[in-house]
Amino acid sequence: MRNIGVFVLLTFICFIYCSKNPVTEPEPEYPASKIAFSSERDGNNEIYLMNTDGTNQIRLTTNPANDFNPAWSPDGSKIVFYSLRDVNREIYIMNADGSNQTRITNNSVRDWLPSWSPDSSKIVFVSNRDGHYEIYIMNTDGSNQTRITYTTGSSQPSWSPDSSKIAFKKDDEIYIMNTDGTNQTNLTNNPTLDSTPDWSPDGSKIAFTSYRSGVSEIFIMNADGSNLIRVPDTITGRGPSWSPDGSKIAFTSYKDGYGVILIMNADGSNQIRLPNSAGYHPAWSPYIY
């Protein structure tokens, strides 16, 4: 009987304590993500990697020629980029630690500005192999290179998160199209340059660079071109890249006369200049599990 009484007393004490001090579940922690970027800090353009607070910067490419425009595979294990190491611009893939750098295009022309499909099966890129810049798609090993646009000056492709659309720049405007090049739709209509589209992770919005105010700034619009918003305090900003949860954007600022990488909330607030981040072309990785 005494044991039962002790049990009842302890249960009562626990009830009183827990009601005054409710147990809260810890906030879930996101897996790590990284930012890849280009920089010429070592004398020529190379690809670098850093944490999203600017720490732990690692040089991934070490070649006397220039390497540019990193873009991540959907699982975060690989990076595609273009290089001048073969005289012409060619597209390479490497592991996310810089190992196993492999050329996947081989043409006596410019192949550049690659972007990975979210289903991991394809890479979209720009080439002038037919006399002017057009958009092509290929398998990730470089096979089955197929032209999908037939309008002069198409470039800067960016694949939608559901793999169904590609945003791109044409005639200094932002367009979207199906992945076979059909149904091209003009989203912006401005006499100045709109460029570098990047999809939000949920596919509902597109961030891009615009010169409509006289200098480059970051703008965001819905994926159908509606609800165009100028992100405040991004004068000289270029090349937006969304974080994998859609809450932040990395971009390059040229306020100091050279490129440095900043991150901010998607509404433009809480802008942070990352330390020792002289560079450009930031590319926010998927979460790395």
Describe what you observe in this structure.
With 289 residues, the protein is mainly beta. The chain has a single domain, classed as TolB, C-terminal domain (Neuraminidase, 6 Propeller), CATH 2.120.10. The protein has one helix at residues 2-20, and strands at residues 34-39, 46-51, 58-59, 67-72, 78-86, 88-95, 102-103, 111-116, 122-127, 134-139, 146-147, 155-159, 165-170, 173-178, 185-186, 194-199, 205-210, 217-222, 229-230, 237-242, 248-253, 260-265, 272-278, 280-284. It has a four-stranded antiparallel beta sheet, with no helix packed on it. The chain starts with a helix and ends in a 5-residue tail after the last strand.
Compact overview of the structure:
The chain is mainly beta and 289 residues long. 7% of the residues lie in helices and 44% in strands.
Write the layout of secondary structure elements.
Layout (H helix, E strand, L loop, with lengths): L1 H19 L13 E6 L6 E6 L6 E2 L7 E6 L5 E9 L1 E8 L6 E2 L7 E6 L5 E6 L6 E6 L6 E2 L7 E5 L5 E6 L2 E6 L6 E2 L7 E6 L5 E6 L6 E6 L6 E2 L6 E6 L5 E6 L6 E6 L6 E7 L1 E5 L5
Antiparallel strand pairs: 1-2, 1-24, 2-3, 4-5, 5-6, 6-7, 8-9, 9-10, 10-11, 12-13, 13-14, 14-15, 16-17, 17-18, 18-19, 20-21, 21-22, 22-23
